[in-house]
Amino acid sequence: MKFDKPAGTNPIDQMKVIGKPLDRIEGPLKTTGTAKYAYEYNELNKGHAYGYVVGAAIGKGRIDSINQYAAKNAPGVLAIVTYENAGPLQKGKFYADKLLAGPDIDHYHQAVAVIVAETFEQARSAAALLKITYTRVKGSFDLEAVKDSAITPQAGQFGPPPQTELGDFEGAFATAAVKLDETYTTPDQSHAMMEPHAAFARWNGDKLTCWCSIQQLNWGVRDLANVLGIPKENVRLISSFIGGGFGGKGTVLSDIVAASLGARAAGRPVKLTLQRPLIFNNTTHRPATIQRIRIGAATDGTITAIGHESWSGNIAGGRTESATAPTRSLYAGANRMSHLRLAVLDLAEGNAMRAPGEASGMMALEIAMDEMAEKLKIDPVEFRIHNDTQVDPSNPTRNFSTRQLVKCLRDGAEKFNWKRRQAIPGSIREGKWLIGIGVASAIRGAPITKSAARVRLDKEGMITVETDMTDIGTGSYTIIGQTAAEMMGVNIEKVIVKLGDSAFPESSGSGGQWGAASSTSGVYAACVKLRESVARSFGFDPEKTEFSDGKVHSGNRSVALGDAAKTGDLFAEDEMTYGELSKQYAQDTFGAHFVEVAVNMYTCEIRVRRMLAVCQAGRILNPKSARSQVVGAMTMGVGAALMEDLVVDKSRGFFVNHDLAGYKVPVHADIPYQEVILLDDVDPTMSPMKAKGIGELGLVGVAAAIANAVYNATGVRVRDYPITLDKLL
Ligand code: MOS
């Protein structure tokens, strides 16, 4: 089915199942520990062995020699694979990293060997006996130091154009009545998802099955086939449950390659998981940025010039962090520029992490907006509202499909009691605590992409949905079940949802906030076809057939849905594809974040006290799972503002705090009262579901709202994240 004009009324609009706050249908499997994750497929892989990945011990250089003797003769060892015996290996498409390195080493902890043994302990202990000698060469590890060597990168598959200019930015900025020109920095961050990267690989002749933990099975099949140099048809990936991804499990990484190579060498199924201390330097991370923001405005607060430049680094072939993306579309202003620059850094690959681009960019832009509001002596909420626009500032020939930023800000201000905020920092005290209140806007693109599904009806009236969509903890199972239930006129209990198998029809996968809207649209398309065959099987006109309460109605006739499958199951499969609507309209999601902090006057300890997010993200398919997405994202925003920081050893070239003891993320005690308001919003330009993603929106702007609240409490403006207490002293 092709979606190429705005959606009219359709069965989803009934909202009998869609839009209801249903519990996750897979929830009991998770809370009882019976949901199977990649590392747990033991029964299917009898006689399996264990793999252990060895990471490079230098930041940049090459391997001189590998002496396997002691490791190979260690107890239980079945195989050792390095670049010397792996055969030719290519790169995948999405990640630039070489997933089994040698002899050249591009970054610290890049995978250099996999040891396969009878037990995990034997594999780990043999790894310690593998003798690798290296020659270290001088690498580049300090973004600030290489900033001036950065170049304007090529336009990437995702993200904004690297360099844009509208009107006369320099001229308008030079003559603006009120100006800001400041530089902000964001650190390297790690996804730190709960489930480590893990894979269970089994060969059957030249056919490979791999149980794994990745977000995009279609990319995974493509990339694994590419890396190993085998046909795509010979690769099957299964990811039924995923313990968090956040962009760090987009597609194939070293765990899957190592398990596959290890299983081939040992002639046994092999399972392995990346040990936690390897993950931070071996896999990808959100790259650090240096961002310069210039804003010029008239004294009434009208922005006349807005410019955003951002520098980040990466290994060769790596992408740039597209931090300028939000500035292109968020506020009005005739004269604008944006410029991304990319430097070479020999650290682990920088790549997508939840709201890549927008999250980093808004950490800077929304502090800058707070600073401008103060210079202008305008309330920060009013300053943002004053510069709202319904026309896409980056492309003034088109409008936003739906944009309720003003309502997000107004409703939030009302609900949060914004009136309590005092413009002069440090005005509110409670005992030894200084109280501050901050705000930030949020914007995140609403991409949508083709997605297929297969549905089956049996004689009991049960609907089974199959698609290779993944559920990374987001609630895909449930919203897909709700979609099929709504379309076929049944309760959610009558729907079985099967996800995460590349043998199923190819879906959008989970990434870039496109999963929810895209995958349910594919299910919609398949259900339209199933409805037609059901209607025809009863001799009904499909146009005049209705589905409700497990029955099919046409004229004065009503029959049980399952009767259509009396003589055999009915199947339907389809793919939703898209025309040009996403070019005709700017499709984005919007929000506003409000935060109250308390800062200890003596120790400068920062406590977040209250948080509110108001979000506009199309039709909300399930308010409970959508709220969970936003609450999780707000929590991540607290981490970004106050804690998260991969500390770079700039002489040796690696992230020092590469485990969950050293890399701090919020715990329950850090998280206060959180509230989420989801605005009514239906966007018929998106798809027949009229929905958008929300999982990344919830993060965008949170850190800046906290930064602004800290400033409001203390009068100290911190422009480099994270805002740790030493920066307030
Ligand atoms: Mo997302 S960072 O594209 O999983």
UniProtKB/TrEMBL annotation:
GO function term, MF aspect, one: iron ion binding
InterPro entries: Ald_Oxase/Xan_DH_a/b, Ald_Oxase/Xan_DH_a/b_sf, Ald_Oxase/xanthine_DH-like, AldOxase/xan_DH_MoCoBD1, AldOxase/xan_DH_MoCoBD2, AldOxase/xan_DH_Mopterin-bd_sf, PaoC-like
SMART domains documented for this protein: Ald_Xan_dh_C
NCBIfam families named among the record's database cross-references: peri_hyde_PaoC
Domain Aldehyde oxidase/xanthine dehydrogenase a/b hammerhead: start-end pairs: 32-138
Name of the protein in question: Xanthine dehydrogenase YagR molybdenum-binding subunit
Phylogenetic lineage: Bacteria, Pseudomonadati, Bacteroidota, Sphingobacteriia, Sphingobacteriales
